[in-house]
Amino acid sequence: MGQDEELPVDERNEEGPSTTGSNRHWLILNPTSGTADHVEQIRHLATDRGYRIEETEEEEHAVKLAEAAAADAVDVLAVAGGDGTVHEAVQGLVRGDALDDVTLGVIPTGTENIFATNIGVQDIEQGFNILETGERRRIDIGIAGDEPFVMSCIAGLPADASVATSSALKERFGSLAFVIAGLQEVATFEELHLEINAISQDEETTWTGEALCVLVGNIRRFAKQGGQANVEDGLFDVVIIERMPGSDLVAETVAQRVLGQDTKHVLHVQASQLEIDGQHGESIDFSLDGELSAHKQLALHTRPHALTVCVGPEYDLDPIGE
Question: Is 237 exposed, middle or buried (0-12, 13-18, 19+ CB in 10 A)?
Fold first, then answer.
C-alpha cells in the first residue's frame, strides 16, 4: 500500500480482534449467491470462529438482518454473498444508525465480487482470516437520494444491461454474462436527455445533453484504465459518456480503458456532490451497486470515512497512482 497522510486516532488502521467465541459477531449468509455451493464451507468456518449465522431467505432480507445486528450492538458484521448482499447489509447498518459502531467484513461468494476484490479480499478462507487479523480502514460511502451505496451508481446503458443479466445467464457464463447482456442492450437503447451538476471544493461543473450513460464510482474507476478509485478521498469518480456513433464508441472505449487517454465524447470529473436531472420529465433507471431504482431526479453526495471495513494486504488507495 502506498504511503498516505497521518490519520486521526479514530481513523487509523487497527489490528482486528479475534472473533473466536464472541457473541457479538454476526454473519449474514446468502445461500443462493454465485454458484450456490458455498453454504457448508461458510457454516463450518463461521461456526469454528463463534459467529452467529443468519441466512437470507428473500430479496431485501439482508437489510433487515443488518438492522437486527445493529440493534443487538454487534462489533463485527460479516457478509457472505455478492455485491448485492453487501449493498443490502450497508443499507441495514445505515438504517440502524450503526456505521460508527460496526466493522464490516466481506466473504466473497457472488458472481462478480467487485467490492471484495477492491478491498483486497480474494476468496472465502482469506475473507475469514482478514476478519481476524486484517487492517481496519474507514472508507467513504455514497448516498443517492436516501439510499447508501459503496461501489457505484450507474445511469444508462450499463444499468439496463445489469438488469437484463438474468440469473440463468450468470449461472451459465459467470462474469461474462454482464458483457453479453450489454451487447444485447446496445441495439435497443435510447440515449438519456440529462442535466448534470457536479460540485467539488465549491467548484461547479454543469453538463447538458444526450448521454449513453453516467458512471458514478465510489470505489470503482470508470476511466483512465479502469481499476479502483480512491475510496478514502471523499470524492466520486464521475464519467459522462455522450451519445456517439457506434464506431466511435468502440474506438473511445479502447482509448479510455486500454490506453488511458481522454476522448472527445467522454467527460471525466470528480465530485463530492452531484445532481442528475432527466429532461422532458423522463424517468431514469439507476443501478446502485447493481440494484435498480428509477428517478426523474437524483441527488448524490459522499459521506467520507463513514464505514469501517476489514481490508486485505492487496488493498491500495490509488493503484493507478494519478
Answer: buried
Q: Does domain 149-304 have CATH number 2.60.200.40?
A: yes
* Residue range 255-274, pLDDT digits in tens: 344 334 455 677 889 999 99
Every domain range in the chain assigned CATH 3.40.50.10330:
17-133
- Could you give the residue range(s) of every CATH 2.60.200.40 domain in the chain? 149-304
Distances (CA, A) of 59 to 55, 64, 88, 244: 12, 10, 9, 37
Q: For the whole model, what pTM was predicted?
A: 0.80
Work out the angle at residue 77's Cα, subtended by the Cα atoms of residues 48 and 27, and round it to the nearest 5 degrees: 45
Given CATH 3.40.50.10330, say whether it is the number of domain 17-133.
Answer: yes
Phi, psi of 152 (to 5 degrees): -160, 155
Between CA 125 and CA 121 the distance in angstroms is 9
pLDDT (mean) for 227-252: 75
Give the list of residues 6+ apart from residue 52 with CB closer than 8 angstroms, or none. 23, 25, 26, 27
